[in-house]
Design a protein that fits this description.
24% of the residues are buried. The longest helix is centred in the N-terminal third of the chain and has 10 residues. Strands 1, 2, 3, 4, 5, 6, 7, 8 and 9 form a 9-stranded mixed sheet that branches. The chain has 123 residues and is mostly beta strands. The radius of gyration is 15 Å and the shape is globular. It is built from 2 helices and 9 strands; from the N terminus they run αβαββββββββ.
Amino acid sequence: MIAVLASLLAACVPLTEADRFGYIRFDERLGDDDPRFAPAVCDEDGCTGHDRSGVEYRTDGEWITNKTVHGPGPSSAFEDRLEPEEPGSRVLTAVVCPWGSGMWLRLDLTAADRPVYGLYAQP
């Protein structure tokens, strides 16, 4: 049990490293009237939109639940710390520290033209 916990903690990526893209950080509230956010679609579950840098945001109406960029994002700095979703998969993931925070990141290397990097949180 201790070895499993130690390996999870060693494999985690700090939020300060993972969240270095887009104009809006995960620890900020995001209203649909925020000038940095150009809403595309809003419904009873929240909004999906983007900022001027091209980062896509999904919100629950107030807090960001995911951020996605078509490109490696900041992941190139710690790609070797990410693990395949399944054995042999070209989709890599890691939990965000502190462990148990309900956040994770995902780097999808299957796209032919460019990777897709996403940072997600439990709503």
